[in-house]
Amino acid sequence: MYDYLKIMKCLSLYTFFFFSIIWLAVCSTGKSRETFCKYLV
């Protein structure tokens, strides 16, 4: 059970890191900044 929780915590961390990179890439380009970024910020 402990290993399962540790794996889930690692996956959630990587998922958050992955989506933050996508969010920065989309918002830095300026395309659909008002429509996409205003829901996340």
Describe the structure.
This protein is an all-alpha fold and 41 residues long. It has one domain. 78% of the residues lie in helices and 0% in strands. It has helices at residues 2-29, 33-36. It is elongated, with a radius of gyration of 14 Å. The chain starts with a helix and ends in a 5-residue tail after the last helix. The model has no long low-confidence stretch (mean pLDDT 76).
Helical content band:
over 70%
- Shape, please? elongated
| Continuous helix count | 2
First-to-last CA distance? 35 Å
Largest sheet: none
β-strand amount: under 5%
Question: Structural class of the helices, strands and pairings?
Answer: mainly alpha
Poorly predicted parts: none
Q: How many structural domains?
A: 1
Rg value: 14 Å
Number of strands: 0
Compact summary:
With 41 residues, the chain is mainly alpha-helical.
What are the main properties of this structure?
41 residues, mainly alpha, 78% helix
List the helices and strands and how they pair.
Blueprint: H1 2-29, H2 33-36
